[in-house]
Amino acid sequence: MANKEQARTRIVHVDMDAFYAAVEVRDNPSLAGKSLIIGALPHERGVVCTCSYEARKFGVRSAMSIKEAYRRCPQGIYMYPDLEKYAAVSREVHKIWADYTDICEYLSLDEGFLDVTDTAHHFGGAAEIAHAIKRRTREALDLTCSVGVGYSMMAAKLASEEKKPDGFFEILTPADLQTLIADRSVRTIYGVGPKTAEALQSIGITTVRQIWDNPDGVIALLGNYGKQIVELAEGIDRRRVTPYMEPKSIGMEQTFQRDTTDLEYLKYILFLTAEKLSADIRQKGVYAQTITLKVTYSDMKSITRSKTGDATDHAADIYGTAAALLDKIEERPIRLIGISLSGLTPNLQLSLFGSAKEAREDKLSDKMRNWQSKYGQEI
Questions:
Q1: 114 within 8 A of 97, measured Cβ to Cβ
Q2: Which residues make Cβ contacts (< 8 Å) with residue 133, sequence separation at least 6?
Q3: Contacts of 26 (CB under 8 A, 6+ apart)
Q4: By C-alpha distance, which of 302, 281, 295, 294 is closest to 340?
Q5: Which of 37, 91, 150, 318 sits between 20 and 30 A of 199, alpha carbons compared?
Q6: How far is it, in rounded angstroms, from Cα 257 to Cα 343?
Q7: Under DSSP, is residue 49 helix (H, G, I), strand (E, B) or coil?
Q8: What is the pTM of this model?
């Protein structure tokens, strides 16, 4: 991205504050002010999805082992995530964002970039858009978000992190960004994770300023990736906000460390997969008409079996169809199993059998508890 182009570009990054926990507190005010941890329960295997800011004071963080979270915060309130509810709220959040630009890139249910370069003047500027998003989110949804405005994606992301929670910040030039991050860890740079940070440390680089002092060393160590890191450290970010494009299909697979013929275990994996795919398409606001089961046997032979029916976004429907297809295939050791959804449509033909679906979901909830007790696995 040329300097002239960077000078006019305006990117807004929105990050909902402790999203899952905030939705639960909103819907149950008795949870306000308490250490709320969303994820697995303390006696189960699993991780923290998110937690309230009260829990973060005890060192609890997203993706932390639930057992470690309990060790740090045994007095916390532990809850399963309600992904369907969060996806519904996320759709309302995204509707607010879409009023300001068509160029929105959703990173997750609660986070995204908006390129307002060509629309900001209609609303009084990028900062005014940011404040409007914050105000409307609070008024319409009773939730808070942190919003950053930047000349690039990295600048906007760093800006939104600067004043969390419920904050606003701007980084409008590369010089502003350099001043802000000069003495921060190299992890501040987009894409620099623990392994890259460790590699940089091996040549004496732990801060952004040290990248400026030794760009040739970074490039010699990391090649083309090193060139990108040097550019980002200097405030040059060539990425563009990429609007979401509706996929023709969406799927998920699980490869086992050991081949299995355990039908109950395979169905447990299918159910976990169906739940994740259900949450995904609900977040996208679409329904699936075709459900496909994929299986790879121990000899690497792969097969698929599909069924097309009424459009659905229910985990119970996705699982039920996939499990029925599994029952019909040859029984022999399986190394991979997965589900894909296609025939995606924004329209739903209402079924006359809603109560039956609810009953199936209740039964599956009971099964899920039994499966988790027996297998204790996530995917």
A1: yes
A2: 12, 14, 96, 97, 100, 145, 147
A3: 141, 142, 143
A4: 294
A5: 150
A6: 32
A7: strand
A8: 0.67
User: What is the rounded CA–CA span in Å between residue 159 and residue 11?
Assistant: 10
Question: How high does pLDDT run on average in the chain?
Answer: 88
Place of tokens 């990054």: 13
Instruction: Summarize the confidence of residues 79-89 as an average pLDDT.
Output: 89
Q: Alpha helix locations (H) across 39-82?
A: 53-56, 66-72
How many Cβ atoms sit within 10 Å of the Cβ of residue 40?
Answer: 24
Contact (CB, 8 A) for 188 and 44? no
Structure tokens at 49: 């999805």
Q: What is the mean pLDDT of residues 227-255?
A: 88
Handedness of CA 179, 184, 186, 188 (dihedral sign): negative
Pick the catalytic residue: 24, 111, 170, 275? 111
Tell me how far the alpha carbon of residue 100 is from its chain's centroid.
22
d(CA 310, CA 288) in angstroms, rounded, equals 8
Distance CA 218, CA 112 (A): 30
Residues composing the chain: 379
Q: At 339, which helix (H) or strand (E)?
A: strand 334-342
User: Strands, E, within 100-248: which ranges?
Assistant: 104-108, 111-115, 145-150, 168-171
Would you state the structure tokens that stand for residue 329, as one six-digit string? 């295939």
Q: What is the mean pLDDT of residues 162-175?
A: 96
